[in-house]
Design goal:
Layout: E1 13-14, E2 21-22, H1 25-39, E3 52-53, E4 66-78, E5 98-111, E6 122-125, H2 129-150, H3 160-168, E7 184-187, E8 194-198, H4 200-205, E9 212-216, H5 219-231, E10 238-242, E11 248-253, E12 257-261, H6 270-275, H7 283-288, H8 291-297, H9 336-348, H10 354-384, H11 394-406, E13 410-411, H12 416-425, E14 438-439, E15 461-462, E16 470-477, E17 480-485, E18 490-494, H13 504-511, H14 514-531, H15 536-567, H16 592-603, H17 605-616, H18 624-648, E19 652-660, E20 666-676, E21 679-689, H19 695-708, E22 716-721, H20 725-728, H21 734-741, E23 746-749, H22 751-765, H23 767-784, H24 787-795, H25 813-825, H26 827-837, H27 843-856, H28 869-875, H29 882-898, H30 902-922, H31 943-949, H32 964-987, H33 993-1004, H34 1010-1020, H35 1024-1039, H36 1043-1061
Parallel strand pairs: 4-9, 9-12, 14-15, 19-22, 22-23
Antiparallel strand pairs: 1-2, 3-13, 4-5, 5-6, 7-8, 10-11, 11-12, 16-17, 17-18, 19-20, 20-21
Helix pairs in contact: 1-12, 15-16, 16-17, 22-28, 22-32, 23-25, 23-27, 26-27, 29-32, 33-34, 33-36
């Protein structure tokens, strides 16, 4: 069975004590000489060859959030002593004379991060104390775990400076190794603060533990026995780390509770440990007691353990006499001063029974233990960045502290001979116990370690610092060094150097040597540190801070240059981005960003050297990837600020529109509209790609976008979309779906978009208008589509102002009106240009110019509608609100309706005749003729067909008015006005704007209508009578103010409502 331990097929010789295999009998004999001495009679399992160990318990650097401190008190019940048998072989060496039964316990839960989450002190007295303790501590562990999952889960809060630091950091903030591409943001889940850049796996391991340590003082020697008697009743997993069959170093119950022994870290009595603390160290005891109470309880008391052999003795009404405090285990009595102090405690706290003294003694023991161990945790966290609550003993803590502080990877011993060599050569204990190994003759004679026995004995080590730690050490070469002790002072050694220099030339030569210069430099640096009261660590820290400041200043320039190109909307990158000499002027197109950095090198002298040094480190932070990351960081910061402003305003509105980019990808734009610091803001949050424009898809997209900004959907009070079915549909439209999560939001269709839809529908319905706009668009395409034709048009000189022929837009009427205006104001120039181009030899130019001239030289082209351009611009103003817009629209509709008269038509007809006369003069003596206004020929039904179906042929009634003026007045002018008025009335009604108008009436008017009050009440789900009463109260209060103050208050109120309605 043992032969297969190794792959060697030769004969093996095994040690029957440790089961180690040797290759020969000689090596086995040498092994046996030390095997029993080192290993005893146990098998030794060594790690595989080449195994190494390094610090990896980074999670232990995170303090345990909750620690439970506990203690038991027991009754010492006497037992009858048995008569020993005469046979010495059957005689037992153990004598049973007392049985310890737990009669009470106390426990205190301490939260490391926030004391408000610490538990209250809990105690219990009863013969079932052990069982009740386990139930209580299990319940407390569940509470602690719930607190960890509920409270210590804060989201990360990171500043722009920290975000920049995250990208600049090269080493992991947890393990210290190079980050490379494995980089995540690590933050404190307790405070939410950013901690640094870390590896993904390090970040996952470096988290708060949900295990709860339960600390007893002397758990191994006493309290574990009381717990183990009852722990079997709980059907839970129990893991034990035993010292032997009776003593347990640590054990765990379930997945949360870990029982540890504080005496394994601080091997002293609780009384001695408490005496080492200063008054300000008693944080927990100090919260419980103050003043004279505090002075009495911050020392460990005494207790008559053997007196308490029955729980009924707790009802004793006086403190037992001094002899009752005798301990037969230690065969000692309490000191008189300790007993007098116990009497003082009894009187001071006005105790009536022994139960009061017992409860105070138990509580002070628990809280004193909590203060002692919490101070120990604080010391370890400050010095080693490790929490002892994660360990079971001081050796395990010190081993991890050694690995963490050194940062080294240590190879494990895998050879048995080497292992025995180390084990045999180990010397345990303090230096005083191994005096023979040291030359302590330099120690002070009053030191307990002083000895002249080994003075100047070869092989004995000397401690020149006399046991005091060394904080500074400078070594030049062997036997030439200097040091500074922690307590002050130090020493210098320069063996082998002559004290007297007989030749000055030799001294001068030495003064120029490299060793002397280096030594003097270090000495001067050391003296400077002493004068400035600094150290090497402080200098390193200062240099690090300077480096951080320099990097931040450099990164600030990078970000400023990048932001300039982004704000000016210019290209960032070039064709050949050579970064080896950014500071030099180059004729290569390196892009605006790198060229801007080159220019800034002239104004910032340090930037040139910084770019050069960063180039050597391969960290210039100017690559395209870094540019994108910086822009993304800035965008995220801006979005967070926008979201914070929107959150601070309590309510906000959204504006959503869809479009397609140049790659034909459907996109949705999202805006937020809110009031911040008294100012209405409308901010763009981004484009969001989508594969579908259905209402359901848009609804989920908007919900996701709003949720990412950490805004509440129910706080949306207004929505602005277009009137398409996917937006305004009654069931599946985006507005209808948004009502589910934002029931109080008001849907408003953009008024400017409504006006454009009304005008576009009118233009496509009235045939003369549609043809006229088509001719104007064709003029733009013809004259502006060729540089040659554009030059001919531009070179023609006229007295009027020259305007550019503009293109029309399918969604903006203002663009259509601008195109119409440009043609009307320079029609003579256009005709002259077309006449010139009609003689061109190019067939296409010839045909297009002739066709456009024939279209223009028509009286129908003179009839153009231009009544609504002012309204379109007004409705798109930044300060426009729904109330004012409604009034403006109503005014335009009224004006247009008033224009439907014979007088207004006559004015327009006269203007068209004047323009027609001008065109006739321009085309005189050309081959082109002007077509005057005439009634189009009306087709009559076939008389034969009428006779066939039995109808009587009649003359069409429309032939009765045969004047061209009457024809265009009815079919063009009146029809256009009727159509636009009908479209505007239809487009500007519906949705939720009636609610806004009703709300404005309630606020602005002193006597709002009952219908408006009912409408607002129904929409917001409030009592209409209550709303009307509050309006009356407001008006009465407002009447009590002077006229000027009342006017000012009303203006402020109206301004706030307008901002809300806008």
């Amino acid at each position: 069975m043992l032969f297969s331990v190794s792959g060697n097929s030769n004969k093996k010789h095994f040690c029957l004590h440790c089961l180690h295999s040797c290759v020969s009998e000689e090596s086995l004999k040498k092994h046996k000489e030390t095997c029993l001495q080192v290993n005893g009679t146990q098998a030794t399992k060594l790690p595989s060859e080449g195994s190494k160990i390094k610090f990896g318990h980074y999670r232990n650097s995170m303090p345990a959030p909750f620690v439970i401190y506990a203690d038991f008190e027991s009754m010492l019940v006497p037992e009858e002593r048995k008569v020993d048998p005469e046979d010495t072989e059957e005689k037992s060496t153990t004598e049973l004379y007392q049985t310890h039964k737990a009669c009470s316990f106390g426990l205190k839960t301490v939260c490391h991060y926030d004391d408000q989450y610490s538990g209250e002190y809990v105690s219990y007295v009863g013969e079932d104390a052990s069982e009740v303790f386990l139930k209580t501590v299990l319940k407390e562990s569940i509470r602690c775990r719930e607190m960890v999952n509920k409270i210590f889960k804060k989201k990360m809060v990171i500043t722009p400076e920290q975000e920049a630091e995250f990208w600049m950091t090269r080493n992991c903030s947890i393990c210290g190794n190079d980050l490379g591409d494995d980089r995540v943001r690590d933050h404190d889940h307790v405070t939410g603060l950013f901690r640094g850049a870390a590896h993904n796996m390090c970040n996952l391991k470096y988290r708060i533990t949900w295990k709860v340590p339960v600390v007893f003082h002397n758990l191994r020697g006493y309290d574990s026995h009381l717990i183990m008697q009852e722990i079997g009743k709980f059907k839970m997993n129990i893991n034990v780390i035993p010292n032997n069959m009776e003593k347990y170093i640590s054990f765990s119950l379930g997945k949360s509770l870990v029982f540890i022994d504080s005496i394994q870290f601080m091997a002293s009595s609780l009384e001695a440990l408490v005496s080492n603390l200063s008054p300000e160290d008693f944080k927990i005891v100090g919260q419980r007691w103050q003043g004279e109470d505090f002075d009495l309880v911050r020392q460990k008391g005494i207790f008559p353990y053997e007196y308490l052999d029955d729980i009924s003795k707790l009802d004793t009404k006086e403190l037992p006499s001094r002899d009752k405090f005798y301990s037969s285990l230690y065969e000692s009595e309490v000191k008189e001063e300790d007993y007098q102090r116990a009497l003082k405690v009894w009187d001071h706290f006005k105790m009536k029974t022994m139960r009061d003294y017992h409860d105070l003694y138990l509580e002070t023991d628990v809280l004193l233990l909590a203060d002692v161990f919490e101070n120990f945790r604080k010391t370890c966290l400050e010095n080693y960045k490790l929490d002892p609550a994660h360990y079971i003993s001081a050796p395990s803590l010190s081993w991890d502290a050694f690995l963490k502080q050194s940062g080294e990877e240590i190879e494990l011993v895998s050879d048995m001979d080497m292992f025995q060599f180390f084990e045999k050569g180990m010397h345990g204990g303090r230096i005083g116990e191994e005096k023979d190994c040291w030359d302590n003759s330099d120690y002070p004679k009053d030191s307990p370690y002083y000895s002249a026995h080994n003075k100047k004995v070869i092989g004995k080590f000397k401690d020149e610092a006399e046991g005091v730690p060394v904080i500074e050490f400078v070594g030049l070469r062997s036997k030439m060094y200097s040091y500074v002790k922690e307590s002050g002072g130090g020493g210098m050694t320069a063996k082998g150097v002559k004290k007297n220099w007989k030749k000055s030339a030799k001294l001068a030569k030495h003064g120029k040597s490299e060793n002397h210069v280096r030594s003097m430099t270090r000495w001067l640096q050391f003296k400077a540190m002493q004068r400035n009261k600094t150290s090497v660590l402080q200098q390193l820290n200062t240099a690090h801070q300077d480096q951080v400041a320099s990097n931040r200043q450099y990164l600030k320039v990078i970000i400023q240059s990048l932001m300039y190109t982004a704000q000016q909307n210019v290209a960032i990158r070039g064709h050949e981005e050579n970064r080896n000499d950014i500071w030099e002027v180059s004729d290569i197109n390196r892009g605006n960003f790198l060229e801007l950095l080159c220019i800034r090198c002239n104004n910032l002298p340090w930037l040139r050297s910084k770019l050069q040094s960063q180039l050597q480190l391969h960290a210039q932070w100017t690559s395209p990837a870094i540019q994108n990351e910086l822009l993304e960081i800035v965008a995220n910061v801006m979005l967070e600020r926008i979201a914070a402003e929107a959150r601070s305003s309590d309510y906000y509105g959204i504006v959503v529109d869809e479009t397609a980019d140049i790659s034909r990808t459907e996109q949705v734009s999202l805006f937020l509209r809110y009031v911040f610091d008294g100012e209405t803001k409308e901010t763009f949050t981004g484009f969001y790609s989508t594969k579908s424009m259905e209402g359901e898809v848009l609804y989920e997209l908007v919900k996701t976008a709003i949720s990412k900004l950490e805004l509440r959907l129910e706080d949306i009070d207004a929505e602005c979309f277009d009137g398409a079915a996917n937006m305004s549909g009654a069931r599946k439209g985006l507005a209808a779906r948004m009502k589910e999560c934002s029931p109080l939001s008001i849907y408003v269709h953009c008024h400017g978009h409504r006006l454009n839809l009304a005008l576009q529908d009118t233009m496509t319905t009235i045939e003369p208008l549609q043809k006229a706009l088509g001719v104007i668009q064709s003029l733009h395409n013809f004259l502006e589509g060729s540089p040659k034709r554009h030059a001919i048009f531009k070179d023609i000189e006229v007295e009027d102002v020259t305007l550019t022929i503009k293109s029309q837009s399918a969604t903006r009427w203002s663009c259509c009106w601008a195109a119409v205006k440009a043609v009307v104001n320079q029609l003579p120039k256009i005709i002259e240009a077309l006449l010139s181009l009609s003689k061109d030899r190019d067939p296409k130019t010839y045909n297009d110019s002739n066709s456009l001239l024939n279209s223009i030289c028509d009286f129908r082209f003179m009839l153009i509608l231009s009544n609504t351009d002012g309204l379109s611009r007004y409705l798109q103003g930044k300060q426009m609100d729904v109330v004012t817009a409604k009034k403006s629209v109503d005014g335009v509709i009224k004006t247009l309706s008033g224009c439907r008269t014979q007088e207004n038509f006559d004015l327009m007809w006269s203007r068209a005749e004047i323009m027609a006369d001008e065109i006739k003069e321009l085309i005189e003596d050309t081959d082109f003729n002007f077509e005057d206004a005439k009634v189009p020929r009306l087709r009559q039904p076939s008389r034969r067909l009428q006779a066939l179906v039995g109808e009587t042929p009649e003359v069409n009634a429309q032939v009765e008015y045969r004047a061209a003026e009457d024809h265009y007045r009815i079919t063009c002018y009146y029809l256009s006005i009727d159509k636009i008025v009908a479209e505007m009335k239809y487009r500007f009604e519906g949705n939720d704007q009636e609610v806004l108008l009703a709300l404005a009436d309630i606020v602005f008017s002193s006597s709002p209508t009952r219908e408006n009050i009912e409408l607002v009440s129904d929409f917001y789900g409030i009592d209409s009578e209550l709303l009307g009463s509050e309006k009356n109260v407001f008006e009465n209060i407002d009447a009590d103010y002077p006229d000027s103050e009342r006017k000012k208050r009303r203006q402020n109120c109206e301004e706030n409502v307008r901002k809300w309605c806008s």
